[in-house]
Description:
The structure holds two protein chains of two kinds.
Chain A: H1 3-9, H2 14-38, H3 46-54, H4 62-93, H5 106-118, H6 130-149, H7 156-180, H8 183-194, H9 202-221, H10 223-229, H11 233-238, H12 243-265, H13 271-282, H14 287-311, H15 321-341
Chain B: H1 2-20, E1 26-30, E2 33-37, E3 44-46, H2 49-57, E4 64-65, H3 76-79, E5 87-88, H4 97-102, E6 107-111, H5 119-125, E7 128-131, H6 137-147, H7 151-176, E8 184-189, E9 194-197, H8 201-208, E10 223-226, E11 239-244, H9 248-259, H10 262-265, H11 268-271, E12 275-277, H12 280-285, H13 289-302
Parallel strand pairs in B: 3-4, 3-6, 4-5, 6-7, 8-11, 11-12
Antiparallel strand pairs in B: 1-2, 8-9, 9-10
Amino acid sequence: MxxxxxxxxxxxxxxxxxxxxxAVLSVILLASLLLSVSLGSQPTAFMDVLHGLIRxxxxxxxxxxxxxxxxxxxxxxxxxxxxxVSGLILQKLVRNPLASPDVIGISSGASVAAVLVLTLGAGxxxxxxxxxxxxxxxxxxxxxxxxxxxxxxxxxxxxxxxGIGIAAALGAVTTLLLVLSTDTSxxxxxxxxxxxxxxxxxxxxIGMVFWVALGLPLAFVMARQLDxxxxxxxxxxxxxxxxxxxxxxxxxxxxxxxxxxxAYAGGLSFIGLIAPHIARRLVANRTTALLPVTxxxxxxLLLYADLIGxxxxxxxxxxxxxxxxxxGAPFLIYLLYRWQRH
Amino acid sequence: xxxxxxxxxxxxxxxxNAAVGDEPARxxxxxxxxxxxEGQPARVVSLYQGATDxxxxxxxxxxxxxxxxxxxxxxxYLRDALPETVRYLGLETQPDxxxxxxxxxxxxxxxxxxxxxxxxxxxxxAPTVIVNTGLDFKALLTLVGAATDREDAxxxxxxxxxxxxxxxxxxxxxxxxxxxxxRVAIVxxxxxxxxxxxxxxxxxxxxxxxxxxxxxxxRDSWGIKLSSREGIPALESDVMFMFLQGAEASVAYTLxxxxxxxxxxxxxxxxxxxxxxxxxxxxxxxxxxxxxxxLLDELYAHYRLAPFYPEEGVRVNHP
Lengths: 342, 319
C-alpha cells in the first residue's frame, strides 16, 4: 500500500492520479477478495478454491466457498463501501471532518430499533425483521433530527448538534434496553451492535447490492452539489444552489446507505469516519475523485477487519466491528504522520 | 459395454432401495420446522451445551461440539466422555460454520434462541434439529433421542430418572418430616448483582422433587435480577442453594458485601445456617440429563440420603 501513492504520483494531472489510485485499489480489492475466499477455519488449498469457484458443481468445497465465504466477503465489500461513502457525504455536507453516520445519530436510530427487536421482541418478533427495523429506525431518527433542527432551512451546525444530542439520548435508551433484558438477548444485541458479518447469506448480499447500486450512482450525480455546498452557504447560494434542498437530498442519500449497511451488518462504526480521511491522503480533495477511492477504502477496511475476526482467534468467530478501528486507526495515524513530514 | 449397463442398473436398484428402504426416514418436529433423518446418524455435531450432555448420555459421541462457557474447552464432567479428536467449533453464539461443514455431519443439533439465522445454512450441511430451550431437559432428551434414533435409550433414561425422583421424594419426606416441603431459593451470585431463579434447569428439577419455590407473583420470566441489596428479602427461604458465576475475586467481594447486610442476616436460611454453595456447571450450565442426575447426586449427598441408582446403566457416562 505504501508504494502506491508514490506510484500514482508519477502521473501529471489530478484526474490521471485519481484514476491510477482507483485502478490500484481495485486490483488490491480483487486480490483481497480472492484471499478472503481462500482462507477460513477449514483449510482449503488455493488450487481447490480456484477450481471450486470456476466449476462449483465438481467441487466438494462448494458449500464453504459459495454459501459461507463468498457471500460474507461480498457483503463486507458492499457494506464497507456504503458506510464510507455515507461518511464522506456527511463530512462534506456539514463541513466538519469529524462527522460520520455514527456521530450524528443515524446509526443510533438503527441500533435502537434493532436492539428493541432483539431484546423486547426476543421470541416474539423473528430476527428476519431486523434489517427492516434497522432501516426504519435510521430513517425515523434522521427525519426527527431534520425536523428538530429546522429553522427556515437546516444549517450544518444545528444538524450536527441536534444529531449528537439525539445520538446520546438514543444511546441511553439502548443501554436501558440491554440492562432490562436477559443475558442471552443482551449478548445477542451486543454482538449485533459491534457489527458482525457472521453467517451472511445471499438474500442479505442481494438486498445490500440493491441499495448500493441505488446509492453510489446517486452520490456521483450529486457530487458537484456537495463541492458547491462545502464552499459555504453564501458562496453556494451565489452559485445558484438551493442549499436546503440539496442538503436534504444528500442527507437522505446518506441515511439510505447507512441504514442499509447497518441493517445487514449491524452497528458498525468508524468506517464512515476514517475511510474519507484515508482517501483524502491519496487523491485530490474533489468529491468526484474522493468518492470511488473512499468506497474502495471502506470496502478494504471491512473486508480485512472481517478476515481477522474470523481467522485470528480460531475456532472462534469474532465480530468484524472489533477490528475495524484496530486496523483503520493505526493506518490513518501513519498516513497523517507521513503527510505532516512531507 | 453391456457389463456397464448391468452395473448401472444394479446400482440404481440399490440406490432406490436405500431411498425407499425398509426403514423410512424419521420425521422430527422442532421449533423451526420438520426434519427428515434417515438411519442412525453417526456423525453428530452439537451446537448446544445441553445437547452435548444429552447425546453423550444416549451413547452418541459427537464429532464436533461448541465450547463450554467455563472450564473451557469443555466442562470437566463431559470432557472424559469426549474423544481427543472431537472438533471444538467456537462459541454457542457464533459457531464455526466452516468447521461444521468440514466435518460433513449427518446430524446437527442447534438451539432456538441461538441459531435462528444460521438454521438455513446448517440445514444445507446436514439434517438439522433445533432444541426448544423453553422446554425442560426431558423434552431435550426426547428430541435428541428421536433425532439420533435412540428413542428406547431416551425412554429408559427417563424411567430411571422418574424412579430416582420418586425415591428422593420418599426418602426426604421421611427424613425431614414436618419440615418438608422446604422453601428453596436458587441463587446465582455474580460480580455486580444477584439472581433468584423461578424457572430454568435447576428450578424445574427442584420443583419436580417437591421443593416449594418462591412466590412467582404471576411472573413467567426466568427469575429476577437483584441489583441492590434492598432486594434481599426476595431470597427468603428455608434453604438456599447458591452458585457463584464470573470472575472469582469480584464475585467473592459481592458475596461478602451482601452477606454482611442486616437484611441478609435476617433471612431464615441464613439464620439456620442453611446456605449452601453448589456447582454452577451442574446447576446452571450443563442443561442435560447427565447434569440433572449430578444435581440429584448432590442433593442426595447434601441431605445424607441413601444413594439410589435404579440400574447401573444410568451411570455409564458419569465420570
